[in-house]
UniProtKB/TrEMBL annotation:
Signal peptide: none annotated. GO terms for molecular function: monooxygenase activity. It comes from the Eukaryota. InterPro entries: FAD/NAD-bd_sf (IPR036188), FAD_mOase_fung (IPR050562). This is FAD-binding domain-containing protein.
Length: 110
């Protein structure tokens, strides 16, 4: 099955989600998804591994990722694969809470 164009029967909860947001839903293993993204990249030289993110600064036009070594990378989209205890996720929660205080609960952060 083509993971991007395949068809399947969705469970009821996914069908309701698709109806409410207008998008089809698929589940995929956490190990497989980054591999698929990587394999489809035309220019793999821009993929950074084993880099520590210290900040993400967003504006209406772009996102700027600041690394521990001081380098900065600007783009339209930040794709992170830094695991369960994600620094990127933590920064995004902080940014969301600045915009809408208490929007993300402590329970959701687990």
């Amino acid at each position: 099955m083509d993971l991007f164009r395949g068809t399947s029967t969705l469970p009821l909860s996914f069908t309701l989600l698709e109806f409410s947001v207008g998008y089809d839903t698929r589940t995929i293993s956490r190990q497989l998804f980054p591999r698929i993204l990587y394999n489809r990249l035309p220019d793999k030289s821009k993929v950074l591994e084993r880099q520590r993110v210290v900040d993400i600064v967003e504006d209406k036009e772009s996102a700027r990722v600041v690394l521990a070594d001081g380098t900065e990378h600007v783009g339209d989209l930040v794709v992170s694969a830094d695991g369960v205890h994600s620094k990127v996720r933590e920064i995004m929660w902080q940014n969301a809470n600045k915009t809408i205080p208490h929007f993300i609960t402590a329970t959701e952060k687990r």
